[in-house]
Specification:
Elements (H helix, E strand, L loop, with lengths): L21 H11 L4 H8 L5 H10 L4 E2 H8 L3 H13 L3 E6 L2 E6 L5 H14 L3 H28 L3 H9 L17 E5 L5 H6 L5 E6 L2 H10 L6 E5 L12 E7 L8 H11 E12 L5 H8 L8 H11 L1 E8 L11 E8 L1
């Protein structure tokens, strides 16, 4: 005769999830929910080995070579390489080659389900025990990498400038300044010559406009800027610019003013074509003693400018605040010393 249920003992209800910690609950939920099980299950196998989760915990934060992972994990190289192949095959890690080494990091294009899965696993593992020891050794590995870099700089200080010039060219020091440009701006190079400044600025702003009175100069500029869709070249005099009122956000007068008869008229025109709040930048020579020589050889009208005179002219044109500063000399330059001046259309 079948016996009935034992009195006083409550039987578990069928299909009740008994898992209470997050990772267990996630695993049970995955198996119960057949709609998301296939893609998730493809990812689960890679996380079933503790060595692989230890590797992921490190490469999630930094990039490591195989030898660096061996040092941090204290595991032989063949073992680390084998687990990296598994993680790479399942899409958890990616690598890049550098010389004879490969540098591994967690893939940045993991799908949402994989990211959620790793987040749950990582939270379940915590930051103690072997994972804390791995992290501590990894910090020392990275510190040694930084020390190697520091040793290089200490040994290369005497040839660093020449090395940078050889690798990156003479403009490397000013290129970061282009990040200060607003991409919506229209920038005018007044007296553009062969368009060198326009070619530099065009990739960083909405539009560049170059004005020059010399057709020959503009012909060279057109060849230089061929294919640059946002460059506009116009023939005109600086004293009567072919620009509308307020057309420019920034105007540049670079090594131009010493060629004009009446600089204050040019500064007044620059003021007219700038919008309210627009900025004028003037680069030119400080006063020097080579006036007759340069007038004869290069057609200079002014032998540079006194800084206080330039400041006065800018203020008279309506600019404010005005800043005029001498530039440090370039040891390789043969010409006069330079200054930079700026003013805002109030």
């Amino acid at each position: 005769m079948p016996r009935g249920p034992t009195r006083g003992k409550k039987q578990p209800a069928p299909n009740v999830l008994l898992a209470t910690d997050p990772i267990s609950y996630m695993f049970v939920s995955v198996f119960m929910n057949t709609s998301i099980a296939p893609p998730i299950l493809d990812r689960l196998s890679a996380l079933s080995d503790e060595t692989r989760t230890r590797i992921l915990a490190l490469v999630e934060r930094s990039e490591f070579t195989v030898s660096e992972l061996c040092s941090a994990l204290q595991i032989p190289q063949p073992t680390v390489s084998r687990h990296l192949r598994t993680l790479a095959g399942d899409g958890w890690v990616v690598s890049r080659a550098q010389g004879r080494n490969r540098h591994y990091r967690m893939a940045s294009d993991l799908d949402t389900a994989s990211r959620d899965l790793w987040r749950l696993v990582r939270e379940g593992l915590g930051q103690k025990g072997v994972y804390a020891a791995d992290a501590e050794r990894a910090r020392e590995v990275l510190a040694e990498r930084r020390r190697r870099s520091a040793r290089f700089f200490a040994e290369s200080a005497h040839r660093w400038d020449a090395l940078r010039l050889e690798l990156f060219g003479g403009r490397a020091e000013i290129l970061p300044l282009f990040g200060l440009l607003d991409p919506s701006w229209t920038v005018g190079d007044l007296g553009t010559g062969t368009g060198g400044i326009l070619a530099l600025l065009a990739p960083f702003v909405n539009r560049v406009v170059g004005v020059d009175r010399s057709e020959e100069m503009l012909s060279v500029a057109r060849r230089r800027l061929e294919g640059v869709a946002n460059a506009d070249l116009r023939v005109g005099h600086l004293e009567k610019l072919p620009l509308e009122d307020g057309e420019l956000d920034v105007a540049v007068l670079a090594l131009v003013l010493h060629y004009v008869v009446d600089p204050p008229d040019v500064l007044a025109e620059a003021y007219r074509v700038l919008r309210d709040g627009g900025r004028l930048i003037v680069l030119d020579m400080r006063a020097h003693e080579r006036g007759p020589e340069y007038a004869e050889e290069m057609g200079h009208v002014w032998p540079g400018f006194e800084l206080d005179r330039m400041e006065g002219w800018l203020k008279e044109a309506g600019f404010g605040p005005v800043h005029v500063r001498p530039l440090p000399p370039d040891p390789d330059a043969l010409g006069p010393l330079l200054f930079i001046a700026s003013g805002i259309r109030a």
